[in-house]
From TrEMBL:
Residue span(s) of domain Pirin N-terminal: 21-124
Residue segments, region Disordered: 1-24
Species, as recorded: Streptomyces harbinensis
Protein name: Pirin N-terminal domain-containing protein
InterPro entries attached to this UniProt entry: Pirin, Pirin_N_dom, RmlC-like_jellyroll, RmlC_Cupin_sf
Recorded family membership: Belongs to the pirin family.
Annotated Basic and acidic residues bias: 1-19
Organism lineage string: Bacteria, Bacillati, Actinomycetota, Actinomycetes, Kitasatosporales
Signal peptide residue numbers: none
Superkingdom as given in the UniProt entry: Bacteria
């Protein structure tokens, strides 16, 4: 029986969006763009978790953002980022990109490579509007070391457990677990690649524990302060 504190969303149940005719296949975990579900707007400060699939040569034309923390995580292929500050950066699996939009930015995200690209695009709402934009890339994020997003009261843990290894969840008010690769068992529920779980009050007994089902499992574990 699934713990009442846990809400599972299968990757196959995400809303399909994007522009397939232009090589863009988007899968939304929350309300996004023209897709609105009043029961599925946010979780903690997380307001978007999109899996984007871009064919070679396709991508998002230059567009603006403000007052949002943008996190990108590459699952397969290469993501090329360009912005109005003159940066051109190529990201590969294991790299983390963080763009604090602040009072305003403009950027493009494209697949300039020869292979299909899959990446996660995550949006977090900051506690305070405005401020100077900031850009950070962390190459080859290490297992078990948190990446802090203090503006949104959030931190990200990347976990790569061995088969059968148990992964304890942070005792934060809210935890968002996304299976980037492989599979895990959460209680009696198996989560496969692309599935996610939203967990409220994981520090309360009995504590949910994720058990890796196979070698090569990779988990993105977000914890939110409020």
């Amino acid at each position: 029986m699934l713990d009442e504190r846990v809400r599972v969303q299968r990757g196959s149940d995400r809303h399909r969006g994007g522009e397939p005719g232009e090589g863009i296949d988007s899968r939304y975990a929350f309300s996004f763009g023209g897709h609105y579900d009043p029961e599925n707007v946010r979780f903690g400060s997380l307001v978007a978790c999109n899996e984007e699939r871009l064919a070679p040569g396709s991508g998002f034309a230059e567009h603006p953002h403000r007052d949002v923390e943008l996190i990108s995580w590459v699952l397969a292929g290469e993501l090329t980022h360009r912005d109005a500050a003159g940066r051109t950066v190529t990201l590969r699996p294991g790299d983390l990109q963080h763009q604090s939009a602040g009072a305003g930015i403009r950027h493009t995200e494209r697949n300039a490579g020869a292979a299909p690209l899959r990446f996660l695009q995550l949006w977090l709402e900051p506690a305070t509007a405005g401020g100077e934009p900031r850009y950070t890339v962390v190459r080859s994020v290490a297992d078990g070391e948190p990446y802090e997003v203090p503006a949104a009261g959030a931190r990200l843990w990347v976990r790569r457990p061995a088969a059968g290894e148990r992964v304890g969840l942070p005792p934060a008010p809210r935890v968002y677990l996304h299976v980037a690769a492989g599979a895990v068992r959460l209680g009696e529920t198996v989560l496969a690649e692309g599935d996610a779980a939203r967990i409220t009050d994981p520090g309360r007994e009995p504590q949910p524990v994720a058990v890796a089902g196979a070698a090569g499992t990779e988990l993105l574990v977000w914890e939110f302060d409020g």
